């Protein structure tokens, strides 16, 4: 017995609830024996991983689900030792490069070389190749991507690579051109409704469509989140009747509070209060980009139409600066002050140029 | 040269099932005469075959224009299959190429004096000049230190070793290195030669590919022959894997290349206030220009949910706006500016949604 | 030799009489005698001594700083209270070091503090930490009082390596033998510049850690072991250690601060300093007007070492000491000195009038701030800290700025600074370094204000990073839990474990999933609906390896804590989210009980299964699939055992509620568990309700899996 997210996760391509065309294509590719390198991309919670697992099952049969976790030690060129957890079955191996930070190139090269040099010994195996799954491929460093490039061609005979990424923007063109691109779009409202109702039916309770609708609205195309919310809801109010309060994650509520503070008052002391709140969020490991986006979205809802574009503009500007810089709080605060200043100018009707003159 | 005997001996460790072999490898030019559309370079290199004198070389140009193929073909022709192994050292970015490697591996290889062995096992006579070739593929990803370490090696061992640097961006090669090499610029392939090559492959592989599909392939790959061939192979895989093999369509090619379908781009552009003149005359959704911030943001969110890549989206939007018949030059340049900014930000790893929204809002404003 | 600065006799008597009657090794009256003798000698031949020194010139190659270094306690210059505090700390060691002979007097402080008892009668803090700006004589003080109190000094300074190794190799032997080689006097370790250059790469943390463990941990062990020294050479610290630092708040000293007696040095009054300089000038035959000397003291901000160097320099040029000469000679001295707090303060406040005068600046110089401040910033060597300081301080200023224009500009500079410094560190482009200082200078024109309030040491950034680290640890432990479960069970949560998903979706929602509105009632009388809910909750928690661990809170109450404590992720500003009901003790107790019951059931099941399967295996009838089924619960079993051996504490906490299950038919428990725990132990033990499980050994073959536990087993065990 486990969380619904896992319990009702489709295990084979036939169980998938949506993107039937994609499933059909995957099935035929798996059957053809001429399986290419692949790159799955799409928003979070759309079902990329699920599809990858299903494809593996289709390729290798149930054996691909027998996983074991190994701890491996890698040596960096500077003789530092890295401990990396690696998930593998007899047919595939899974790496998450963000686990190893800046040394991803070393780890990937080692693993790929090793896989490429071992032949599939099991004569009954359905495929002659092994599969390497690289999760969060968009966080691969440039170096690591360059290293992948040639390896993908060289070891085609006994290895296939499946990349999984939220977006292809951060992947270099040579990698993209060597992969078969598989876009996994987020499920639309109707599809999500089907999934939720399916789970409800299997769990033997009645899910009012309105409640489901509300969950779907909240999840914004993220099916995983929708299922988690559904389960939380079911746990907290078992009968699912009456007015439903969709539990927003706490960091989101908190971000909204921050946004309200910004709109209410624009003074240096308020800036300090906001900074304290940002610290609180950051210390909860909420990525700064997410903080900035969430707060900005909320601020946008509360300001005048003519300011909205500016708010988003500065959010975009400071977000990219934040990536380049190292002290996130500086940029968050700079954005807040900028927005406050803009807001004041708007309210009091004087423009920046007057002041400068 | 034309009656190339089958090299049965060349059976390396990785035997590749010919059906699985990437076509890019399979159809790599065997001689430099086969290299498509780089006539000048081919003419120059032909001479070296006869004169057996070769300078250090620096090949640069956009990806997929045949740089690596050319040097591989050339060295194959120079040394023949037997000597190829011990006369040519090929290093690329997937190999460790830090300064340590330059100091040990490259230097050692450069130092060895080649043995003369002109009679090949296949009975052909190769020029086999008295030097070795070191190919540094993707040289622009080498560190500055490693490149500097090469400088001296290139000079001291010039008598018995030739270097060939292959890179995309010549500016990333440090000046002292570049000045030691004769530079060859590979220009993007023109449409006709790409088309010929693709047709050649499709006929050899016996897959029916129509001309419009080939045109799509060329336009999608933008002069990169390797990409075009890879797409073609992927497409043929897809089409042959379905139970009754279906014909390859332009739409398949688009999907494989990750290109966003035109209707999607058009409807996005329309929300931003760009007039779309469709060939079909009719458009699917008649939303027209969006009224305000929320509408634009809604559209952007919808696009992001579909999972399209932001850089692809922006470049296609750019391709739509720039040749647009009714927009003023000023508007176009403003839009191009903001798209360029966004591209820079995306390269720095910025958040996609924020920047697509930023571009959308700006374009929306400019076209107001 | 110059013993020059001597307090007037009256002062001496008063000072000694007040508080330090028992602290000096030589009684007061003797000292007094000595003093008067010395004074007499000095008075009798001051000119002669001076003449000799000048004429022979033999001493000219000596630095004045060394020549006029105080040799006796009484010669020390500066705040006398500081000196006496230091001395009395050192004297507290007397009982321990010199034995009872002198200890009689030293008993006094330990009587004052009855709470603290040490079998060796050592002072409570075994390390003394002297801190203060450079040149005030900290090192001198340490040496002088150590000599005065009858110790030999072992000095470790910045020229020595600072690694844990040094503690083992040099300090420990010296402390253990108790005296330096070839000397009968006990040793006193002086570690100079402990905040400075640390070689180990870990910022000196290793060194400091070893040092602390030397004093602290060992002392404790001795307490338990009693009087006798154990054979392994583990001996308590029996000699004093004095550490000296400039920056008391250096990060490497964080730990040390808690374990040491801290004495702060302050700048001695200018008048004493200039008086002393005057005397030195007299001896050296240097003509100096007192205005010039006062100016020098002001210029150097009380750094007597610097003053002496300047004077010697002037003397070398055979010039008289006048103000102009001084300014020339002292050019660059103390320019941009100082800790980063001073620099930070300078950024936000104009120069004080006095300082302007000291530096003899005119209006124009004063208004030229860019060069001055950037030099200061460059010299401070901790730009990042200053940037943090700016961030934390600037919002306190210019509160009335209507458009926040200044703040906005300040932020522009700060972000630019961050981008530049970020690039510098990541790309190793240190050519950017010179530009960085100018990014912070603009705070001066934007915010400078006379009397704008003190600038505090920035700490929020640091606190934040500490907190973040702690929380990251919790995430990791959650991820680890989930990973092990997905290894053992057929449940696959791995896909939830990528960082973003974990932080943004999983952590907040799992908290809601595991806190349903349960009423705290006995598991026997529960309503069927609630029973289902409870069951589901328990299963989820088991599958995620979440536990409620019983602990005693500070106020003595028993509480159940969630382990790993993932509930911090719904706790912002110390408050839990409103929509999550606070689960009460009784509820958690109930859940914890159920969890353990389930675990026990599974274990038993596993053992049963293991037995049959093993038999099957020997009959040769097992297929791989069956073997794999066994794997699941059994490896849980192994896990459980490992955990028990590793963490005795948690296993205890686990066991106790486990026993409670057996008496589940008793009425619900109250909140104070102690008597009940006793009871359960008896009930559980006497009737032996829980079947004593025999330890069974099973062997399973697991294709391609090396995770199996191997141990040698006799064949008989299988039969």
TrEMBL record, chain A:
Protein biosynthesis in keyword set: no
Location of this chain's protein in the cell: Nucleus
Taxonomic superkingdom: Eukaryota
Pfam family, one: RFC_C
InterPro entries registered for this protein in UniProt: AAA+_ATPase, DNA_pol3_clamp-load_cplx_C, DNA_Rep/Repair_Clamp_Loader, P-loop_NTPase
Secretion signal span: none
GO biological process: DNA repair; DNA strand elongation involved in DNA replication
Protein name per UniProt: Replication factor C subunit 5
Organism of provenance: Rickenella mellea
From TrEMBL, chain B:
Disordered: annotated span: 1-20
Domain AAA+ ATPase: residue ranges: 53-190
Phylogenetic placement of the source organism: Eukaryota, Fungi, Dikarya, Basidiomycota, Agaricomycotina
InterPro entries on file: AAA+_ATPase, ATPase_AAA_core, DNA_pol3_clamp-load_cplx_C, DNA_Rep/Repair_Clamp_Loader, P-loop_NTPase, Rep_factorC_C
Main localization, broad class: nucleus
GO CC annotations on file: DNA replication factor C complex; Elg1 RFC-like complex; nucleus
Protein's cellular compartments: Nucleus
MF (Gene Ontology): ATP binding; ATP hydrolysis activity; DNA binding; DNA clamp loader activity
Highest rank taxon of the organism: Eukaryota
Gene3D superfamilies: 1.10.8.60, 1.20.272.10, P-loop containing nucleotide triphosphate hydrolases
Keywords of this entry: ATP-binding, DNA replication, DNA-binding, Hydrolase, Nucleotide-binding, Nucleus
Protein name (record): Replication factor C subunit 2
GO biological process: DNA repair; DNA replication checkpoint signaling; DNA strand elongation involved in DNA replication
Family: Belongs to the activator 1 small subunits family.
TrEMBL record, chain C:
GO cellular component, one term: nucleus
Compartment annotation: Nucleus
GO biological process: DNA replication
Pfam family, one: AAA
The AAA+ ATPase domain, residue ranges: 124-287
InterPro entries from the UniProt entry: AAA+_ATPase, ATPase_AAA_core, CTF18-RFC_complex, P-loop_NTPase, RFC_lid
Residues making up the signal peptide according to the UniProt record: none
Keywords of this entry: ATP-binding, Cell cycle, DNA replication, DNA-binding, Hydrolase, Nucleotide-binding, Nucleus
Transmembrane segments: none
Main location: nucleus
Single GO term (MF): DNA binding
Family according to the record: Belongs to the activator 1 small subunits family. CTF18 subfamily.
Name the UniProt record assigns to this protein: P-loop containing nucleoside triphosphate hydrolase protein
């Amino acid at each position: 017995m486990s969380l619904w997210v896992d319990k009702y996760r489709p295990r084979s391509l036939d169980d998938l609830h949506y993107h039937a065309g994609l499933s059909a294509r995957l099935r035929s590719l798996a059957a053809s024996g001429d399986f290419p390198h692949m790159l799955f991309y799409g928003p979070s919670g759309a079902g990329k991983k699920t599809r990858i697992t299903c494809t593996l099952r289709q390729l290798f049969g149930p054996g691909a689900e027998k996983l074991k976790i190994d701890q491996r030690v890698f040596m960096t060129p500077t003789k530092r030792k890295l401990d990396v957890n690696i998930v593998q079955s007899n047919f595939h191996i899974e790496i998450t490069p963000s686990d190893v930070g800046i040394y991803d190139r070393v780890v990937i090269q080692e693993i790929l070389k090793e896989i490429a040099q071992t032949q599939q010994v099991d004569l009954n195996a359905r495929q002659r190749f092994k599969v390497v799954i690289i999760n969060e491929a968009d966080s691969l460093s440039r170096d690591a991507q360059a290293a992948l490039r040639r390896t993908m061609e060289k070891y085609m005979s006994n290895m296939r690579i499946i990349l999984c990424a939220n977006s292809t923007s951060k992947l270099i063109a040579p990698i993209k051109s060597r992969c078969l691109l598989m876009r996994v779009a987020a499920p639309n409202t109707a599809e999500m409704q089907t999934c939720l109702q399916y789970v409800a039916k299997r769990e033997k309770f009645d899910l009012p469509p309105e409640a489901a609708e509300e969950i779907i609205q909240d999840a914004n195309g993220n099916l995983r989140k929708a299922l988690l919310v559904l389960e939380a809801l079911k746990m907290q109010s078992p009968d699912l009747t009456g007015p439903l309060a969709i539990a927003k994650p706490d960091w989101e509520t908190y971000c909204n509070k921050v946004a309200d503070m910004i709109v209410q008052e624009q003074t240096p002391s308020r800036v300090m209060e906001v900074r304290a709140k940002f610290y609180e969020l950051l210390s909860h490991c909420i990525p700064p980009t997410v903080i900035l986006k969430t707060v900005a979205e909320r601020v946008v809802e509360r300001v005048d139409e003519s300011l909205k574009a500016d708010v988003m503009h500065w959010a975009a500007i400071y977000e990219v600066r934040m990536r380049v810089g190292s002290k996130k709080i500086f940029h968050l605060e700079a954005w807040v002050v900028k927005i406050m200043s803009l807001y004041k100018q708007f309210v009091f009707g004087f423009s920046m140029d007057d002041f400068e003159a | 040269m034309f009656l190339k005997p089958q090299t049965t001996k060349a059976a390396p460790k990785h035997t590749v099932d010919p059906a699985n072999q990437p076509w890019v490898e399979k159809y790599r030019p065997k001689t430099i005469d086969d290299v498509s559309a780089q006539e000048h370079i081919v003419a120059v290199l032909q001479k070296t075959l006869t004169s057996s004198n070769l300078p250090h070389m620096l090949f640069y140009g956009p990806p997929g224009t045949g740089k690596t193929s050319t040097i591989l073909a050339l060295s194959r022709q120079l040394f023949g299959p037997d000597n190829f192994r011990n006369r040519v050292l090929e290093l690329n970015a997937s190999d460790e190429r830090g300064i340590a490697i330059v100091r040990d591996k490259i230097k050692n290889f450069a130092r060895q004096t080649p043995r003369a062995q002109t009679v090949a096992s296949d009975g052909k006579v190769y020029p086999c000049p008295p030097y070795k070739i070191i190919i540094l593929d993707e040289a622009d990803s080498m560190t500055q230190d490693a490149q500097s370490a090469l400088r001296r090696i290139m000079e001291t061992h010039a008598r018995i070793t030739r270097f060939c640097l292959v890179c995309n961006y010549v500016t990333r090669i440090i000046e002292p290195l570049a000045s030691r090499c004769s530079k060859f610029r590979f220009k993007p392939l023109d449409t006709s030669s790409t088309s010929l090559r693709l047709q050649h492959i499709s006929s050899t592989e016996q897959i029916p590919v129509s001309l419009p599909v080939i045109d799509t392939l060329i336009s999608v790959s933008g002069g990169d022959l390797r990409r075009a061939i890879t797409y073609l192979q992927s497409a043929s895989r897809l089409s042959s894997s379905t139970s009754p093999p279906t014909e390859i369509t332009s739409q398949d090619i688009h999907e494989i290349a990750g290109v966003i379908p035109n209707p999607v781009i058009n409807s996005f552009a329309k929300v931003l206030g760009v007039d779309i003149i469709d060939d079909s005359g009719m458009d699917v959704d008649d939303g027209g220009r969006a009224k305000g911030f929320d509408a634009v943001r809604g559209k952007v969110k919808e696009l992001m949910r579909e999972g399209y890549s932001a850089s692809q989206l922006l470049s296609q939007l750019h391709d739509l706006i720039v040749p647009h018949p009714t927009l003023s030059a000023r508007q176009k340049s403003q839009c191009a500016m903001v798209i360029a900014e966004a591209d820079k930000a995306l390269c720095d790893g910025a958040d996609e949604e924020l920047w697509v929204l930023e571009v959308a809002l700006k374009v929306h404003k400019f076209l107001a | 030799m110059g013993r020059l600065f001597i307090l007037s006799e009256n002062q001496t008597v008063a000072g000694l009489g007040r508080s330090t009657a028992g602290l000096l090794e030589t009684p007061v009256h003797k000292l007094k005698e000595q003093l008067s003798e010395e004074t007499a000698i000095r008075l009798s031949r001051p000119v002669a001594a001076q003449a000799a020194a000048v004429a022979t010139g033999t001493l000219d190659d000596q630095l004045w700083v060394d020549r006029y270094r105080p040799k006796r306690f009484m010669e020390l210059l500066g705040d006398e209270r500081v000196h006496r505090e230091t001395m009395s700390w050192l004297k507290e060691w007397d009982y321990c070091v010199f034995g009872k002979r002198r200890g009689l007097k030293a008993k006094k402080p330990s009587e004052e503090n009855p709470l603290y008892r040490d079998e060796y009668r050592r002072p409570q803090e075994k390390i003394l930490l002297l801190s203060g700006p450079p040149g005030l004589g900290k090192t001198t003080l340490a040496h002088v009082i150590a000599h005065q109190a009858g110790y030999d000094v072992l000095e470790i300074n910045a020229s020595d390596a600072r690694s844990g190794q040094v503690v083992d190799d040099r300090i420990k032997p010296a402390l253990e033998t108790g005296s330096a080689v070839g000397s009968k006097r006990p040793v006193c370790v002086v570690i100079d510049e402990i905040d400075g250059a640390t070689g180990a790469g870990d910022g000196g943390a290793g060194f400091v850690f070893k040092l602390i463990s030397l004093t602290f941990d060992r002392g404790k062990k001795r307490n338990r072991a009693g009087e006798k020294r154990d054979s392994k050479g583990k001996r308590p610290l029996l000699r004093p250690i004095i550490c000296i630092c400039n920056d008391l708040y250096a990060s490497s000293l964080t730990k040390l601060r808690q374990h040491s007696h801290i004495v702060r040095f302050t700048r001695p009054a200018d008048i004493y300093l200039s008086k002393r300089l005057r005397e030195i000038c007299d001896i050296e035959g240097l003509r100096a007007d007192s205005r010039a000397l006062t100016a020098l003291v002001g210029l150097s901000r009380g750094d007597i070492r610097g003053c002496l160097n300047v004077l010697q320099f002037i003397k070398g040029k055979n010039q008289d000491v006048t103000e102009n000469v001084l300014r020339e000679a002292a050019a660059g001295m103390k320019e941009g000195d100082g800790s980063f707090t001073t620099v930070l303060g300078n950024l936000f406040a104009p120069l004080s009038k006095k300082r302007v005068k000291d530096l003899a600046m005119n209006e124009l110089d004063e208004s030229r701030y860019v060069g001055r401040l950037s030099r200061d910033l460059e010299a401070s060597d901790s730009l990042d800290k200053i940037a943090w300081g700016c961030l934390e301080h600037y919002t306190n200023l210019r509160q009335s700025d209507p458009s926040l224009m200044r703040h906005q500009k300040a932020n522009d500079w700060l972000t630019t600074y961050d981008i530049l410094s970020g690039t510098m560190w990541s790309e190793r482009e240190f050519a950017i370094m010179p530009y960085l200082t100018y990014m912070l200078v603009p705070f001066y024109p934007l915010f400078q204000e006379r009397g704008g309030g003190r600038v505090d040491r920035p700490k929020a950034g640091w606190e934040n990073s500490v907190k973040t680290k702690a929380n990251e640890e919790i995430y990791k432990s959650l991820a680890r839990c989930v990973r092990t479960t997905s290894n053992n069970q057929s449940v696959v949560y791995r896909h939830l474990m990528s960082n973003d998903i974990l932080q943004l979706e999983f952590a907040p929602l799992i908290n809601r999933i595991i806190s349903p509105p349960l009423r705290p009632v006995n598991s026997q009388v529960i309503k069927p609906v609630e029973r289902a809910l409870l069951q589901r909750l328990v299963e989820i928690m088991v599958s995620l390896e979440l536990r409620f661990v019983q602990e005693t809170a500070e106020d003595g109450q028993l509480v159940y804590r969630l382990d790993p404590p993932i509930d911090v992720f719904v706790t912002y500003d110390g408050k839990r989210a409103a929509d999550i009901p606070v689960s009460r003790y009784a509820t958690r107790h109930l859940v914890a009980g159920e969890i353990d019951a389930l675990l026990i059931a599974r274990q038993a099941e596993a053992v049963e299964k293991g037995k049959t399967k093993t038999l099957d295996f020997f009959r040769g009838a097992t297929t791989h699939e069956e073997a794999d089924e066994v794997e699941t619960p059994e490896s849980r079993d192994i896990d459980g055992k490992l955990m028990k051996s590793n963490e005795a504490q948690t296993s205890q906490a686990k066991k106790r509620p486990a026993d409670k299950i057996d008496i589940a038919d008793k009425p619900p428990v109250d909140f104070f568990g102690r008597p009940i725990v006793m009871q359960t132990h008896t009930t559980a033990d006497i009737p032996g309700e829980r079947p004593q499980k025999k330890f069974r050994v099973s062997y399973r073959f697991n294709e391609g899996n090396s995770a199996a536990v191997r141990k040698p087993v006799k064949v008989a065990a299988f039969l």
